[in-house]
User: Which sequence fits this backbone?
């Protein structure tokens, strides 16, 4: 209750102290401008809710029904059933948690590593820059996915946190480079020079002055990292190199293609298509929403 | 020219360092495996009734280093062996040197990746130019949309889709294996046509999944160049539209070389999915097989060769870039 009150308070007197409309209100205005963006937001919210509450909707052991193996699509089984007669819809909903949680973790790690290293390397130049850029080149050059597959032999990816961490440390290169090149051009601008002359600490300059200006890159990369990580982790499970501990979409894909023979039998087709559908809808949501994020953070687009 | 050679030499040196770092990485990775496969193998051989000396020799041949020695000595030995191109012996293909197996598999992957890369590059760049020049017409928008969609679809989804449509639903193309086993390999018509027919779907998967990236990058690059003064100047001077498009394309294509690095790694990563889906006997499939069979020497070898291929391709792309871009040549 009190939380709702505090978040709503600034939006009532809309021109805030600095003369800007509040961030949330502005964001909502930008999103509501196009129906596609609203759809994107709705899809992302739906999947997030699925990840948070999905596993509570079903018993821990999903019910199996030997009489309804590979049942066709019906009211009772909206997406058909799998090889044990478990509803595909239930599998998708309960499997969303691992997939989305790991992807969110991966995106957070990517953004934290990429932003911090990019800012430091672009601002200090000199030896920290050359060391960081060497490492970045290295990370960008080595084939990331085969590396993940090899790492999966020693690392237990059953925990979404571990999966997210590994995806993060193999994926920050591109963002670090983008942030660095932005920082390089920003550090010569007047307001940064002014801040330096005022004797503000490097910490303040980096995080209070420069960081807000690279916000659009970071926000875009955050969402792109989410989709990229979802593909990578689902791909790892699809290839079957990670031991199956929890049900998720990649496990479904793997079992559908390599065990159920969904590629050649039409009755198993819903089992193959449901995780693919979930993946594609989520990607569509992120792509549609990216457009709004771009406008929210890109000052040049904001005026238009 | 001298500048280019110095640059090339630096890149090759950095590449060699990178390969050595990755080799060290796989060495320590195998040592960190739960249950340490090296001493597990040693103990297994002792249990089979071998003398410790025999078992030691066997393991040394298999992994390229000797257990029961200090780690740094094993490491040095391993690196020296790698520099002599000795990658040990495979466990699952009993007694066959890893180098033979991976060199047999490499052409399948490298030919498919290269064909896919070139095909997607040509189509993507041309479509990108058209999409940029006609960006306010429905044609341009449709091309851009096709690029965004292709760019958004993961490789394994694309592969599964193509496999399902063209081998099950509308079975016009063969599935699995690189060629018809009934034919004798060699330089004859039926064999080559079988080879090509089996390669169509994997190559199409590579090409379709990277075409969108080229298209979108080329489009934004062309739009940037379109705003440059020299384009306006050439328009004012009355230079033919065809020549102007050539000017634009030549300038706009330069930034694409810098994303080449990302693309090559992506393509070789995709070989794991594509070769798995189409059951193609390349490096990706080999890596997966090695992990499945707990064949660690083979796994290290396949991974190392994929890394080397990516690094070599990167150096080549960088070399091309310095040849194409006069600003680097000076």
Assistant:
């Amino acid at each position: 209750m009190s939380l709702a009150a505090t978040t709503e308070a600034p939006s009532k007197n809309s021109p805030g102290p600095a003369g800007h409309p509040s961030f949330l209100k502005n964001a909502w205005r930008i999103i509501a401008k196009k129906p596609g963006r609203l759809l994107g937001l709705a899809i992302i919210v739906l999947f997030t809710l699925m990840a948070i509450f999905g596993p509570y909707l079903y018993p821990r052991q999903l019910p199996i029904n030997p009489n309804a193996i590979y049942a066709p699509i019906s009211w009772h089984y909206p997406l058909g059933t799998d090889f044990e007669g478990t509803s595909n819809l239930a599998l998708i909903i309960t499997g969303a948690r691992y997939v989305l949680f790991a992807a969110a973790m991966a995106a957070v790690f990517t953004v934290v590593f990429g932003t911090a290293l990019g800012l430091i390397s672009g601002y200090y130049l000199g030896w920290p820059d050359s060391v960081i850029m060497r490492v970045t080149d290295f990370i960008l050059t080595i084939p990331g996915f085969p590396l993940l597959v090899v790492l999966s032999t020693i690392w237990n990816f059953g925990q979404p946190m571990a999966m997210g961490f590994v995806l993060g440390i193999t994926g920050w290169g591109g963002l670090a480079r983008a942030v660095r090149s932005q920082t390089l051009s920003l550090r010569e601008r007047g307001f940064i020079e002014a801040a330096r002359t005022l004797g503000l600490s490097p910490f303040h300059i980096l995080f209070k002055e420069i960081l807000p200006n690279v916000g659009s890159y970071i926000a875009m990369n955050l969402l792109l990292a989410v989709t990229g990580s979802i593909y990578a982790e689902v791909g790892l499970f699809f290839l079957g190199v990670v031991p199956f501990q929890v049900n998720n979409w990649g496990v479904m894909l793997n079992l559908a293609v390599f065990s159920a023979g969904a590629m050649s039998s039409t009755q198993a087709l819903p089992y193959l298509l449901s995780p693919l559908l979930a993946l594609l809808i989520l990607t569509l949501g992120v792509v549609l929403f990216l457009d709004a994020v771009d406008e929210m953070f890109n000052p040049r687009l904001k005026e238009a | 020219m001298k500048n280019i050679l110095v640059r090339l030499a630096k890149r090759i040196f950095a590449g060699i360092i990178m390969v050595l770092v990755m080799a060290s990485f796989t060495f320590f990775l195998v040592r960190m495996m739960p249950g340490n496969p090296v001493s597990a193998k040693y103990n297994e051989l002792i249990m089979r009734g071998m003398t410790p000396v025999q078992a030691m020799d066997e393991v040394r041949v298999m992994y390229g280093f000797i257990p029961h020695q200090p780690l740094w000595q094993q490491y040095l030995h391993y690196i020296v062996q790698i520099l002599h191109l000795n990658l040990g012996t495979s466990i699952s293909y009993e007694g066959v040197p890893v180098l033979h197996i991976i060199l047999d598999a490499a052409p399948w992957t490298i030919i498919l990746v290269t064909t896919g890369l070139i095909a997607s590059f040509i189509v993507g760049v041309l479509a990108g130019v058209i999409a940029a020049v006609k960006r306010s017409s429905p044609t341009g928008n449709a091309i851009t949309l096709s690029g965004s969609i292709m760019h958004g679809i993961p490789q394994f989804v694309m592969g599964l889709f193509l496999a399902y449509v063209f081998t099950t639903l509308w079975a016009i193309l063969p599935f699995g294996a690189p060629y018809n086993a009934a034919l004798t390999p060699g330089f004859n018509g039926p064999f080559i046509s079988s080879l090509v027919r089996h390669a169509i779907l994997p190559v199409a998967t590579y090409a379709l999944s990277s075409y969108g990236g080229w298209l979108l990058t080329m489009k934004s690059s062309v739009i940037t160049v379109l705003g440059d003064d020299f384009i306006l100047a050439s328009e004012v001077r009355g230079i033919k539209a065809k020549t102007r498009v050539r000017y634009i394309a030549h300038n706009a294509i330069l930034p694409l070389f810098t994303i080449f690095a990302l693309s090559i790694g992506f393509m070789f990563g995709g070989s794991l999915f594509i070769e798995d889906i189409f059951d193609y006997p390349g490096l990706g499939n080999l890596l997966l097989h090695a992990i499945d069979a707990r064949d660690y020497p083979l796994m290290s070898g396949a991974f190392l060769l994929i890394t080397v291929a990516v690094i070599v391709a990167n150096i080549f792309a960088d070399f091309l870039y310095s040849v194409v871009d006069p600003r680097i040549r000076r």
